[in-house]
Amino acid sequence: MTNQNLYIDLHVLQTVPSSNINRDDTGAPKTALYGGVNRARVSSQSWKRAIRSEFKQDNVSIGTRTKEAAKLLTDKLLSESVDEKTAMEKVAEIFKDAGIKLNKENETGALLLVSPGQVEKLARYAINNEELDKKEIKKILKSDNSIDLALFGRMVADNPELNVEGSAQVAHAISTHEVVPEFDYFTALDDLRPKDVTGAAMLGAVEFTSSTLYRYADLNVRELMHNLGEADAIQGTAAFIKASYFQCLQESKIRLQTKHYQIMSWLQFERIRQ
Fold first, then answer.
1. Strands (E), 73-115
2. What is the pTM of this model?
3. Which of 6, 144, 157, 208 has the greatest number of CB atoms lying within 10 Å of its CB?
4. pLDDT class for 6, splitting at 50, 70, 90?
């Protein structure tokens, strides 16, 4: 493999009829002002979440992003017949040595993404060693990355040594045209209400848009190899392209309309060597 970086750029036009697949804090579809007009927008975080969910559907092993990583490791030790007191002491020591703070509820201050392999290796290391070594713990947490960790990276504010540089960049998707949000006014009837009682039991309005989205993502294949290993990087590249552009669609409020309408009108790959 050459030492040069290999980038794969993906450009997609995707038609999404009436829906609200990515909401803001008011429940309205997200938008962006671009080119002097208001356009539909789907955030990069939303797409990445959908990609991770699609990996699960395809039985691709992914990490766990949680504040309860300590409980995850404790449960693993308990499943290996380690007594509860010893397991909790070992886990507390591991997190202390890793430089990751735990609060009174034994949770991390922020979500921590750990791979199944990292949890397995930490548990095995704790079982096989009375004295724990900080360097070895950090080494374990920097190896055996899951595909989502290798693609999207990890930031650990408590200890930047454990940060993982993501190999993929996903842009916010924006519509190719101006959008004007519309409102779907709805009512609902109570099935048990007497026939002589009229009126709706519930009413409301759901905001939605329809658009053709331009989507863009960039994958540094060499960085993925660094994070995942050469053999797994090949499969990881294929899985990323398949999950992110041929299958996944964020599902927030999409079931109010339908999700069987993905129309891919254009997909372009660009390979750039630097």
1. 112-114
2. 0.86
3. 208
4. confident
Q: What beta strand segments (E) does the chain contain?
A: 6-19, 31-34, 37-42, 64-66, 112-114, 168-170, 173-175, 182-188, 202-220, 263-273
Domain residues of the chain, as ranges?
6-61+167-182+210-273, 64-145
Task: Check pLDDT > 60 for residue 231.
Answer: yes
Report whether pLDDT(263) > 80.
no
**Going by C-beta distance under 8 Å and a sequence separation of 6 or more, which residues neighbour residue 85?**
none
Residue 167's nearest CA partner among 145, 184, 182, 183 is 145
If one counts every other C-beta atom within 10 angstroms of the C-beta of residue 44, the result is 17
Residue 192 has a CB neighbour count (10 Å cut-off) of 6
Distance of CA 212 to the CA centre of its chain: 23
Model pLDDT, residue 265: 56
Average pLDDT value for the chain: 90
Contact 110, 72 (CB under 8 A): no
Which residue's entry shows tokens 């190999």? 167
H/E stretch holding 231: helix 230-242
